[in-house]
Design brief:
The protein has about 100 residues and is mainly α. It is built from five helices and no strands. One of its GO terms (biological process) is L-tryptophan catabolic process to kynurenine.
Length: about 100
């Protein structure tokens, strides 16, 4: 658990950066669970998969509390990174096709 809790490496002093990083890191953890669940799609797993997607959608509600100005205070430090570059996100998309 210490590894998980110490893996938020802030690049700026922007207040919203921690929330943004934690939201994306937790999404990656849920993508890992989705990949696992999609490997054996039973009725029980499908219910779980739906709930995980519902939870992932609530993360966007949290991110939406950040204003564009808040985001701009640290966006430059992220380089060219994009959520669509996530290997696990791409794998979830592939498994759902």
């Amino acid at each position: 658990m210490d590894n998980v809790l110490s893996s938020q490496n802030l690049l700026t002093q922007a207040h919203s950066e921690l929330m943004f990083i934690v939201a994306h890191q937790s999404s990656e953890l849920w993508f890992k669970v989705l990949i696992h669940e999609l490997s054996l799609p039973t009725d029980i797993n499908l219910k779980r998969i739906v709930k995980i997607f519902e939870h992932l959608n609530t993360l966007w509600d949290i991110i939406a509390t950040m204003t564009p100005a808040d985001y701009d205070t640290f966006r430059g430090s992220l380089g060219s990174a994009s959520g669509k570059q996530s290997a696990q996100y791409i794998e979830v998309e592939r498994l759902l096709k």
